[in-house]
Amino acid sequence: MKSLLLKVLGRASDLADVQPVIGLFLAGALLAVFFAALIQSKSANEPEAKSGLLWTLYHQITRLVGALMVVLMLVGALSLLRIYLHQTLAHFQRTHGRITEANYNAVQSIWGAEQNQGELRMEIFYEEEVTERIESEDLRKPALLRKKIVRHDITANPFVAAHHEVTLRQNPRKKGSALYGGYETACRFTWRLKNPVNRDLNSILKFPLPAASAMYDEILATLKDEDVLPRIQLKDASLILTQELKPNETLELAIAFKSRGMSFWYLQVKEPREIRDFTLTLNLPDLPKARLNYPEGCMTSPPKAWAFPCPPWRDYQRRPGRSRARLASDFRNAGLRSDPGSGL
After folding, report:
1. Topology (CATH) of 116-336
2. DSSP per-residue string spanning 96-109
3. Inter-helix orientation angle 53-96/20-44, to 10°
4. Least confident of 127-141, 261-275, 326-340
5. The whole model's pTM is what?
């Protein structure tokens, strides 16, 4: 009995903390039912002949227990109704909420897909024309001479420095009764590249976009502070730029854009790379520190990189050495709550 009473009081305390107004009205309603049952029991069971002390106490206790039983039965009925409503809500969210693949795909097609940002790739090479001699099987016939272009790839590292800054803001999208973890991004990526050999080279710069089916606004691409966006080709969800390099030439490349996506955002350097100066800053202006987490398999930033209160930011630096970085923010839990800043 004691454990049951403590459980009821605990539930009442939780309700008062979460919904104080509803808890106040419910307590008033139960108190009114209690007094109404007590008064009605008193008028119906008024003693006629006997008026002794024990008889009076017996009737008072009977009326009190009867009123308490009515209140307990009402509380039990409300508890059963609450359990039924929770089960119904859970079933509705399971069949009509974010778990439904069709609804998720519908929101994703309108707002944007998950984003997985890769790093810049640079192919450097030079071409030369060579003459190929083809001997005939018939020795009486002269040999054939054929010219062809041979490509020689340079394996030296052209990356000198990379400084990236990404700002993510939560923007949950609602469909039906479900909230989906949407977000908006403002990205700026900059690199310093250098021709590693003392000769003229050709290069192909390939920057992968984070999602093939996404919306990109305010795209900016500069090379040595010169706008090269008209020269860039879009192929296989990547921005491709060809550039000739002079001996030991240094390039300053910058790419910036705004976009939006859902559920999560990743930055991955998939291939090992040696870089002497690498900085990545991830700004999360609407995320409280208490709600920060790190998705599985992703690196954490050093504690000194945190700055609170807003804007919180994460700064990862690696110099020198080889890096294979993977940084991510997970917005999937944010869609389960109505507060846009409730989770990441």
Report:
1. Immunoglobulin-like (2.60.40)
2. HSTT-HHHHHHHHH
3. 140
4. 326-340
5. 0.60
